[in-house]
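Re: export button greyed out
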Amino acid sequence: MADVDYKEIIHRCFRCGFCKLSYDYSSVGFNCPMYHRFRLETYSPSGLNWLIRAALIKNDIEWTEHLSEILYSCSTCGNCVETCRFEFGEHLVNNFIAVREEILETQRPVPKMIRKFFENVYLYGNAYREPREARGNWAQGLGIKEFEQGDEYLFYVGCVGSYDTCSQRAAKSLGKVMQKASVSFGILGEKEECDGNEVRLLGEQGLFEHQRDKNVELFREAGVKKIVTLSPHSYNAFKNHYAGEFEVFHYTQLLRDLIESGTLAISGKFEATVTYHDPCFLGRHNLEYDAPREVLNTIGGLNLVEMERNRKNAFCCGGGSANFYTGISAKGKDQASNARVREAYETGATILAVACPVCLLMLEDAVKTEGLDEQIQVKDISEIMMESLTN
Amino acid sequence: MGNDSVYNALVEIVGEDYASNQPEELYMYSVDSGTEGPRKVDYVAMPKTTEQVRDILLLANEHRVPITPMGANLTLNGLGLPVNGGIVLDMKRMDRIIELNKLSRYVVVEPGVTQGRLGTYIEKNCPELEHSRPEAPPMATVVGNIVIRGHGFLAVKYGNNASQINGMEVVLPTGEICKTGSFSVSQLPFSKGPLPDLSALFCGWNGTTGVITKLSLKLFPKRKTMDIVGYAVHDVELVPDLLWRITQTDMVDNLFVVGFVFGDSGESPQYVTVCFTGDIDEELEHKKAVFQKIAEEFDRAAPGKVEFLYPVTEMLTSRFIEKPPYVSPALAADFEHGGGYRYCGAILTVDKMPQAWRTGIELARKHGTNFLSGTQIMGYCHSVNFCFVYPFNRADEESMERVRRAMRDTNEAVLAMDGIPWKAEVEAQKLISRKMDPNSYNLIQRIKETLDPNGIMNPGNWSK
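Workaround output, generated via the alternate export path:
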């Protein structure tokens, strides 16, 4: 999976600590979500490098469940790849994935929630252990049809958007916006399967390949050519880790194109100051920073302001690599998402815009636990767009 | 929580998430990026408040457990590692920037504030000022740099960073919370005041006298523009005179010299880097002309030996002008694709630079390592910090051992040159202590014993 053997380069980590910061040394705080959360040296990319070397190469320490928890607390947000000053830094996230693979293959202790995640995806096609037949329930009453031959786009919703009640708002809004723009699309409903992005990040390569192959077969059988994803996580999996035979769009890219071509005319307004949170799997992993901003900037009345940490310096919500489900790193008041909503609030914005169902649920929870729900609301861009179309 | 009473008490003080006796944390805090360690560590604790620090020190006294305060653990010489086990006090959770006073030009920080964050914070909130940022990676803490008497980019004008302290709040080994400087008399930490300099009791003592919990640091005017010129000096004997001549202009903000010997490539020239600032372009042009004239003077006296360099390389521009700087001395760790280097920073008189350079080459050859030197000029050539840098490959224990041996010889050579190793590791502290005037050494011991009657503070440091 990783293009370089981590064992050949891991000793080159100097523990200088660039990986904990944003590229521009933001004054707001540390930019590695696990280090932000735990603050012990172990919970950092460099700490992980040294622990992995100590346990798997030098045998100075044993591999324990605690060490696995540290490893799995990493959200693979890619901040360390961005900030490491050494040439091997580009491999950091891949190294962590490779180590996860190795510990699974060698049957070392792994947190129970990680095992459960794999089991759920394998048995139910989703992380939540929800029935397959309920996967398309979010679309009931919206007039969104199943994908059929000839539809231009498959609207791939993903596990979080399909099952999480908060994130379903985004799925519904996006469906409605596409309907308003007369986009030719359909969903797979109960036939939809987990995209496998988190499974791959967690190191279960066999299960990832199983999910990928199932999806590819499903897409081929259905005659899918173009996919529009709600989640940047799905977008990342399809774009970078599937066969490449499908044209893949994140929905903000599609909306931008629809607006540019005049297909989607925004006549209404959305009067609010809005700040946008870059999702890691759209931004750092796929370098799409502009499409969401371009969409927001076309909406009348909307005043877009930036947080200090934005674009490649954006601070992860802490939910990646299934942390939104396992809660290994995403727990307590010190978790990344809480800091992120405070940062958003300090911009003066009343709306924190996201473009990812994982970020949506993480940040919405954080707004509540921070007691900021009267001051700032978290909304997916699809929701903002839908409201602006109806206002 | 188990039946470990010290661990349980630490959890009680800082919370479960911020205390550990797990093998993973104990391992991480037992090693640093140099060649020291692993050392024994029994507990790690991350306090958030001064009161928590006090409670931990009281606990340590009660149980006679050693305490080692730690910043970013970037000394490369093991100063953040305990010598005799006990509790490592990771201070990075105390990370508030408490006050920035523009008019009186100071900032008050907690010990976990990093250099990178402070620099960005000042740039954002008061771009007219700056602190003397060290060359260390941005994770290095402001307080950590000061307690080791480190220096920054403004060292030529203002000396090392310990001389820029206004005052501090410190928890004494016996748990009293004490203030120094004007802090001790008023709420305003603006000056050391006409008082005994108690802050000096906590700088250069390697954590043996107390734990700093707040520090007021001087800030300085930041000029609007900066430029860099360089000199390639092909005869190392000329370097002291050249540095003296450059500093005599009183136009220098930073002055740095680099040389290297890699493999069989032979000796590099001595690259002298001069950073200078101004408010208008004409001012920079004028200064540049002065520095060029100096090169011409030297060329007349020793033809072909001193080459004026302008513009300088992109690497130097990135290192000294770019914000944030992309190039960091940390990159030396990857010179051999090996992840590490050690260095002995020798505080020397400027005339010793040629001897230090030759010594470094000789020791590198003797021990089979590469060698580079980086010299920061301190004050107006009042002293220099000549760093003997030896890269190693962390995956090759032999390579690490060669560097350890080179370091031992270097420390001895520095003392023989009437110099003093900076941020000396325990072994070097012993060498220094043995050479030190006995009454000075005894005074240090008496102060330590008075402040720390139970000997809990980083024991093993500053002893023979």
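The domain at 93-221 of chain B is CATH 3.30.465.10 (Uridine Diphospho-n-acetylenolpyruvylglucosamine Reductase; domain 3). The button fix ships in the next patch.
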